[in-house]
């Protein structure tokens, strides 16, 4: 199944988005528990400090299915991020996805 990457940039400081981030994490866990292959995390700067945005890696049948899926993400529904969805074609290496229990 094809891979897709959603990148996002926060429109407000991360500390102001606790409610939306919590809803996002809950939604991702639900999706994983239902068998969807999806991993989500936040981006950090050169000092390891969060706040710039996030990244999601997912499998979907096609771009339309990936788009329909991520448009359900609470971070997108809240309007607190600018985002972009792109297909991704791995060329070298293996991708090992974290199981749901490893999410913070």
TrEMBL record:
It holds the Pfam family YCII. Transmembrane segments: none annotated. Gene3D superfamilies: Dimeric alpha+beta barrel. Residues 19-83 form the YCII-related domain. Belongs to the YciI family. This is YCII-related domain-containing protein. It comes from Candidatus Synechococcus spongiarum LMB bulk15M.
């Amino acid at each position: 199944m094809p891979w897709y990457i959603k990148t996002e940039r926060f429109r407000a400081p991360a500390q102001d988005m606790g409610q939306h981030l919590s809803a996002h994490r809950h939604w991702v866990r639900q999706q994983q528990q239902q068998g969807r292959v999806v991993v989500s995390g936040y981006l950090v700067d050169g000092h390891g400090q969060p706040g710039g945005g996030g990244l999601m890696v997912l499998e979907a049948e096609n771009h339309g299915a990936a788009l329909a899926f991520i448009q359900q993400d609470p971070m997108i529904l809240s309007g607190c991020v600018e985002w972009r969805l792109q297909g991704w074609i791995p060329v070298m290496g293996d991708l090992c996805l974290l199981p749901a229990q490893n999410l913070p």
